[in-house]
């Protein structure tokens, strides 16, 4: 199943209209429609918002088959992310941008960006260092 199909399935199971989901994630209902007919795919940050709005897991939207990371990898990413954020916040001046403390929205965007970077690094490392005969997804 594609991401759009999964969004539609979960949205409908929650009894929401496309316009209601669009309002919750602050996009147009045409954008939601475009996702659901698989014309476009939401970016990872938007998938996070969709999951929060639909009260579901990322794997419910992305699907198990599209995630090459194991449960251990996911836990490692979460642990590294929390450690990194804690180190940044407890540093000399904490998280600052142009001399100003970060607001909650900017902090959340930073967290999403760091998580995506950690995830991409983990996937790249798996592809690079896993012998071909043990790879699950041969391309």
Automatic annotation (TrEMBL):
One example GO MF annotation: DNA binding
Organism domain of life: Bacteria
Pfam (any one): HTH_3
Keyword Cell division appears in the UniProt entry: no
Entry-linked InterPro entries: Cro/C1-type_HTH, Lambda_DNA-bd_dom_sf
Keywords from the named record: DNA-binding
Entries under SUPFAM superfamilies matching the protein: lambda repressor-like DNA-binding domains (SSF47413)
UniProt xrefs under SMART domains: HTH_XRE
Residue ranges of every copy of the HTH cro/C1-type domain listed in the record: 7-61
The name this protein goes by in its record: Helix-turn-helix domain-containing protein
């Amino acid at each position: 199943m594609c991401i759009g199909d999964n969004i539609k399935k979960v949205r409908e199971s929650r009894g929401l209209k496309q316009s209601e989901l669009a309002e919750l994630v602050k996009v147009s209902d045409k954008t939601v429609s475009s996702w659901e007919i698989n014309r476009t795919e939401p970016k990872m940050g938007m998938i996070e918002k969709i999951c929060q709005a639909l009260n579901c897991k990322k794997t419910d939207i992305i699907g198990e088959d599209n995630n090459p990371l194991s449960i251990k990898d996911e836990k490692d990413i979460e642990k590294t992310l929390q450690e990194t954020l804690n180190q940044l916040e407890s540093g000399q001046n904490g998280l600052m941008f142009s001399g100003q403390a970060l607001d909650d929205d900017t902090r959340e965007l930073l967290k999403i960006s760091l998580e995506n970077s950690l995830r991409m690094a983990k996937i790249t490392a798996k592809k690079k260092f896993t012998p071909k005969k043990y790879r699950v997804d041969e391309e």
